[in-house]
């Protein structure tokens, strides 16, 4: 079992080290991650410029590779053969913020796992639900304990083709976590605001600012699970077809094209 | 009806001009698009740096805004109020390459429409299916004719919440297009290859190269529709939950967390 560990915060992020250590009992672990932070980068494939890869060492001495590409590029590089052995499983994280609801389309952590799923590999994304009440300490050890229990389950059971697991973990000591919940994606409420400023030469520039997104803690959703201090495990698919909308659309009176 | 026109190829791309002209009969048109090419950029939200917006003019004299943000940033800027009036509808494109199957998660053209859908706006992405056989001429006029027929249908019928339309158009004269097909997303076959080179100082760098992706032209899919010279209209949703995988996962024996 050859496990690729990547993330979107950069190879030296503490969450990546915790994840690499957590999955080490289950196979050979290779780390290939971005050399810088790519948060909110989306699903990127870098075709317009060459990518560099350099050897680095994690804080515990583990050898690792750092690339100037995006998280999904790191997975593509690994799958396409930059590592001597083929990859069997992809884990991404541990992200220091939750990736729930619509976040998954923006999230570099999740899109790294998506890239793994596109290549047919069982893939998991791990994120810690830091929020306004609990952000003093980051409990990577809790997320690592979750990964150490879930990864062997995935190795044993496999995952359906083109489905990845998006895992969010309460940012609490392990003893405060109440258990597992298999969930659907919930509804994020974004609270972005446009902030206009002027540079020293009087020209405007803009920040996308505002409060952190919140969410509807509906039962059965990832957001609801986290609100109840459960680990949320959401199967995420690559097929984005809105099947329930097909019939409605087929009833439209499409005009002649000629 | 206030229509936002954006794309991922940059504000001066000919596809954007064709799209802006096509939708002009249906309302007030505002153009806010990236100042450079963002192809394969994924769904980006730029939070770590401020964004600039400058006034430019399209080739036909239309005033437009160009931002140094990603396509989805352009939509967010417009929705968050950089334009004096609220947006009612988002159109993105015309991309000079198809966005089918799993492409939609990478595609800047589609993620601009996703951003519109996240904000609750009816949103459409338009792409032209250039392929190895038909790439001598780009038939933007065909895609524009499709947009001019489809946009009023969307204004009339509306779209389900959080569903966007991903529209792919054969790269043919309009007379060669056989009609409309409402489709699901097909299966892309990526043919990426890793290409290793050495720089003048003997250090390696890597290209993600290889042939263009191909696809399975299955009946009922976007890829199948294009293969038969039909316009493909695919409803795409933001909810990526793999619902069919929920029951299987709930049957797993999750170990105790303590």
UniProtKB/TrEMBL annotation, chains A, B:
A divalent metal cation binds at residues 8-9, 39, 95. It is an enzyme of class 3 (hydrolase). Belongs to the SurE nucleotidase family. The lineage of its organism: Bacteria, Bacillati, Chloroflexota, Anaerolineae, Anaerolineales. It catalyses: a ribonucleoside 5'-phosphate + H2O = a ribonucleoside + phosphate. NCBIfam families: PRK00346.1-4, surE. The keyword Cytoplasm applies. Keywords: Cytoplasm, Hydrolase, Metal-binding, Nucleotide-binding. GO terms for molecular function: 3'-nucleotidase activity; 5'-nucleotidase activity; exopolyphosphatase activity; metal ion binding; nucleotide binding. Its main location: cytoplasm. Binds 1 divalent metal cation per subunit. Gene3D superfamilies: Survival protein SurE-like phosphatase/nucleotidase (3.40.1210.10). This is 5'-nucleotidase SurE. GO terms for cellular component: cytoplasm. InterPro entries: SurE, SurE-like_Pase/nucleotidase, SurE-like_sf. Nucleotidase that shows phosphatase activity on nucleoside 5'-monophosphates. Pfam families: SurE. Its EC number is 3.1.3.5. It is found in: Cytoplasm. Residues 3-191 form the Survival protein SurE-like phosphatase/nucleotidase domain. Its cofactor is Mg(2+); a divalent metal cation.
């Amino acid at each position: 079992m050859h496990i690729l560990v990547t993330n979107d915060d950069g190879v030296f992020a503490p969450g990546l080290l915790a994840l690499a250590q957590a999955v080490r009992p289950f196979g050979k672990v290779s780390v290939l991650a971005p050399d810088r932070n790519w948060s909110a980068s989306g699903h990127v494939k870098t075709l317009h410029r060459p990518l560099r890869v350099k050897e680095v060492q994690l804080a515990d001495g583990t050898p690792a590779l750092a690339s100037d590409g995006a998280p999904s590029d790191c997975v593509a590089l690994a799958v396409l053969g930059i590592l001597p052995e083929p990859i069997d499983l992809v884990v991404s994280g541990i992200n220091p913020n939750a990736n729930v609801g619509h976040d998954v389309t923006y999230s570099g952590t999740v899109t790294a796992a998506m890239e793994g799923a596109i290549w047919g590999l069982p893939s998991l994304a791990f994120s810690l639900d830091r929020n306004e009440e609990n952000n003093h300490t980051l409990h990577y050890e809790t997320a690592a304990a979750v990964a150490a229990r879930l990864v062997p389950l995935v190795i044993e059971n496999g995952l359906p083709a083109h489905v990845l697991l998006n895992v969010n973990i309460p940012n609490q000591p392990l003893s405060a976590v109440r258990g597992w919940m298999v969930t659907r994606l919930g509804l994020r409420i974004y609270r972005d605001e446009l902030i206009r400023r002027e540079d020293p030469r009087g020209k405007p520039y803009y920040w996308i600012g505002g409060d952190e997104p919140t969410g509807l803690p509906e039962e059965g959703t990832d957001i609801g699970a986290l609100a109840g201090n459960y680990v949320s495990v959401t199967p995420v698919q690559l097929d984005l077809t809105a099947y329930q909308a097909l019939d409605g659309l087929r009833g439209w009176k499409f005009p002649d094209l000629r």
